[in-house]
Amino acid sequence: MTGILVGACSWANPELASSGWYPPGSRDAEGRLRHYASRFPVVEVDSTYYALPSAHNSRLWAGRTPAGFTFDVKAFAALTGHPFPARALPAELRPVGPPAARLRPSELPEAILDELWARFHAGIEPLRAAGRLGSVLFQFPPWFRPGAAARARIEECRKRAEVPITVEFRHPSWLSDGQLDDTLRFLSELQIALVGVDAPGMPAVAEATSPQLSVVRFHGRSPHWGTGSKEERYRHRYTAEELEPWVPRLRALARHGARVHALFNNCCGDAAVRAAETMAQLLAAR
Questions:
Q1: Mind telling me which PANTHER family this protein's record contains (predicted)?
Q2: Cα–Cα distance between 271 and 286 in angstroms, integer?
């Protein structure tokens, strides 16, 4: 359907690279992205959550994809309140003193946080300049609950991001019956897209809160969600029957006039790209 772009949350994770989905001759870094972009119109860059983005890589990505191809970029962990490995910071930005294995953003001086924002912007600027940047995803941690401080944090992220942002909540209270209307009203006033999610324990909410973009991320339905290793949490292969109920929801979002990104994050082997292929077929069949 016009206006609904379907893709995956990575084109380069090791399990996908070794799954056999990429044909011979398309398995180096450039070949993988070119092949992916020949099959899908959108991708989410998740590597920028674990390390600051590189302007060099962004220029390469823009040059290796066709006009109209879109990158959504996940915000660096320190910008969303997640603890992160100290080695994820450039050496010159690491705190002075005994080395720490992990850092909390609250432990960083304000000047360092300002520099992280500046470097994040610089890293994705080639995508923006090339017209390939869809939005920046701010996925807040599970302990990020509704309240005045949380709303202020979202407003700050919107202001400092300087590009369109989307927001994903991991605490279900944001989308609960008693809170949902307030959440939708707050995001709509800021014109921030609420990210709908398909994941255990999270309400299946698909509501347009931005006139430009709506996003749904599919994390899988593993019974180990919230308890197992990363591989166990995301190890799920969607069936057509599981995806079918999302087709009218995606179409309803598209009717609001916004572009819709449906992105699969069940990133084990080729499960995400296969699910994206299935969703695209379901949307085309109606």
A1: UNCHARACTERIZED PROTEIN YECE, UPF0759 PROTEIN YUNF
A2: 23
